[in-house]
Each structure stands twice: as C-alpha cells, then as structure tokens.
Amino acid sequence: MEQNLIEDIGEFQLLYQKKGLDGVKREINRDMKSDEEELFFRLFDKDGMRIYSSDLSSWGFLPDNQELIKQVFSTEELIFQSMRIPGEEYEVKAVYGLIAPDTLIYFGESTEETENIITLLSNVFIVMLIIVIPLASVLGWVMAGRAVKGIKEVSRIASEIEKGKLEQRVLVPAQGDEITQLVDTFNAMLDRIWVLISEMKEMTDSIAHDLRSPLARIRVISESVLSNENTPPTFRSAASGTIEECDRLSQMINSILDVAEAEAGALQVTKQKVNISQLVQDACELFEEVAEQKGIKLTCRLQKDCYIYGNIQELQRMLANLLDNAIKYTLANGQVSVALTCNRQNIEIMVLDTGVGIPESDQARVFDRFFRCDQSRTHDGFGLGLSYSRAVAHSHGGDIELSSSLEKGSCFIIKLPIT
Ligand code: ADP
Q1: Rounded to whole angstroms, how far apart are CA atoms 52 and 102?
Q2: What is the spatial distance between Cα 376 and Cα 324, in angstroms, rounded to a whole number?
Q3: Cβ of 322 below 6 Å from ligand 1
Q4: DSSP code of 411?
Q5: CATH 3.90.1530.10 is right for the domain spanning 2-110
Q6: Which tens digit of pLDDT belongs to each residue from 374-413?
Q7: Domain 272-417 carries which CATH code?
Q8: 378 in helix, strand or coil?
Q9: Which residue, 110, 113, 190, 363, is the most exposed by fewest CB within 10 angstroms?
Q10: Could you tell me if the CB of 376 is within 6 A of ligand 1?
C-alpha cells in the first residue's frame, strides 16, 4: 500500500507541473467519485493552511498534524502514517508529501479492501489446507504407489535372478505406461539371457558328450602302452599319468552330463515313495568314517519316518555332495551336523559345518556350474556338485538355501515338498 501511495504522489507531482493546482483538484474529485468511501485528500500551503479537501463525511474526525506538515516542508521527504479512526473497523494508511515546493498533499486510504482480500486468501488457503492438501496427498500416494509397484516388482525379480532363478519373469501391468515398457524390456532381456545360457549349456553338454569316445580311446592306447613289456620306464610313467588324467576328465564329463540330466529332469522325475529319514541316516553312517579320519565330529539329528516322493539315486547324490563338501571344507576338530525335520507339506534337511565359510560375494554363484571359491582351489573338485544338487532339488519341486559366514561356517538347507 505504501508503494501505491508513493506512485500516486509521483503522479500528482507530474499533474501539478502540467496542469497546476486545478488539475490536481480535478483529479482528486475524479478519484473520489470512483472510490469515495475508501479515500481522502487534503492540500496545504506552506503555512500549513488547508487549501483543499475531499469529502470527509465518512472519515469521522481526522486531524491535520501541523508538526508533520512542517517537517515535510523542511525535509521534502515523505512521511507515512498508519492509524485507526475511532468507530472504523479498518486501519488507514496515509502519507504527507510535497507535490510542489509550496503545496503539500496529505492523502490516504482505508485498508478495508486489502484486508478483505487477505481474509479471502486466508480462507481459501485454510480450505485448501483442510480439503485439497489431504486429497492431493492421498491421490499422490495412490499414484506414487501405482508407479512404484511396477518398479518394486522389477527389483524383486532382479534380486531373485541374482540368486540364480533366471526363469522368473515380471508380470506386465495392464496400463501402457513407462513401467510397462520397462517391464517389457526387462523380460526381453531375461529371455535373451536365458537363450544364451541354454545355448551355452547345450554346447558344454555336447562337447562333454563328444569328448567321451576320444577320451576312452586315449585311455585304451595308454593302457596298451603301459601293459607292453617293451615300453621304456619313462613312457610307462607318461602312460600312467595319461590314464590318471583321462579318468579325471571322464569323471568331470560324467558330472557335467549328470548335471545336464538332472536339470532336464526338472520336467520329468520318475518318483517313488522314499523314506528320507532312512536315506539321511544311511548317508550319515557312510560319511562318519571319513569325518572321523579328518578329526571332524559328525552329528545327525533326524526326525523319524519322513517320506517324500522322489528319485532315490538323485536324492542320495544330492545329500552326499553336501556332506562331502561340509567335511571337505571344514578343518580338523571342526563339527558337521545334519538335521532332518518334516511336517505334512515339507521336509527340511540342514547340513551345518564350522568350516571355512563362503564369502558373501560368492554365495549366489556357488550353485553355478564350475564355480569354485578362491579359497577352495587347493581341494579336489570340479565345481559341479552344488549345481547338480540344486538341479535335483529343483526337479523335486524344492530348493537349497545357503547362509554362510567366512571362517565361521556354512549352513545348507534343502527344502522339498512331500509330494
Ligand atoms: P566342488 O567340487 O568345488 O566342491 P561344489 O559345486 O560342490 O564344487 O561347490 C562349489 C564351491 O562352493 C566349492 O568349490 C567351495 O568353494 C564352495 N563350497 C561348497 N560347499 C562349501 C562348504 N560347506 N564350505 C565352504 N565352501 C563350500
């Protein structure tokens, strides 16, 4: 409002220069006609005498402040006033200022209009606060929830895939927005990875398969060299080394083919009723001696009479792999414990050891073909045992979970449904 008053004074000064005092009076009258109740004007000469005044009937008693008039004439500066008129509800903002060296204007206006606007704005703001903001928040929350739902699903599946479940796909949401595009691209990428991995596996399997016969022939030739009495001793030792390597290689090839077979078996398992309690008991007895020789204490706590439908040979090998690893990767004086529990739906076999443990970064990969942790390279193995075991668990509708902590030990839990 003060800014308006300053601008008005500037206009009156210009008007005075162009049209003199009469021009200013005419302008005052014009302003009064348009906004009579809100405005007042007074003009004074250098002696502080009132030379003109607007209609003050609606302004009650409004004093002239001779002190201020004198001050303005001497300093030529504006003096603003905020005051309350008795009987009036609203404040008045007024100003004393010169429009010519010998003429002073004192004018002002009621703050009624401004205050009404402020009150209106406050009311609108309060309504917004009460209605619009909660509504907008709820709407925003719902919309953000919808937008984030797709992303959450993508990241959930991504973490499943990180654990090795490559066959997972994200369900495409119905609405055709950016999330749908993201999901489509993500699924297409997974399809492509799946195809590449399947092709790689097929290639490994067929190489393994094709290597079998030449390997067998190399072994036969080496055997004949070894059994020939005329073979010099250096050739004899070379032939025996070749036979050893052939055996290792063919063991590895067989393991690759077993894994491939077990993975293929995910579609068709020849199931029979297996007493899993007995099967685990037998495995414990089988490995007791190996553990004892290494100075490891093997304990088994088995719930009796747990049965599942499955392939007995595959289940035996799966368990043997886990027990073999637990003993292999545990130092002397360590402990390996096996526990079996079952209920109406599932069985759980836990193989726990106090061995070297598996670094967190490797835990998702130990089930991959040929993967071996760095610290295990000194031990025998091809890195195929766990991928075989997981393939068997999958083909029985279950899975193997791993938790491990480096230098403390590992815990593998086989979870299988009963039927
Ligand atoms: P391997 O023939 O090398 O034992 P596996 O597939 O059975 O192959 O295991 C893969 C890798 O996982 C192993 O090389 C080893 O690094 C790690 N591993 C498996 N079981 C254990 C265990 N109980 N403790 C520590 N490391 C283990």
Answers
A1: 14
A2: 13
A3: no
A4: E
A5: no
A6: 888 888 888 999 999 999 999 899 999 999 999 999 999 9
A7: 3.30.565.10
A8: coil
A9: 113
A10: yes
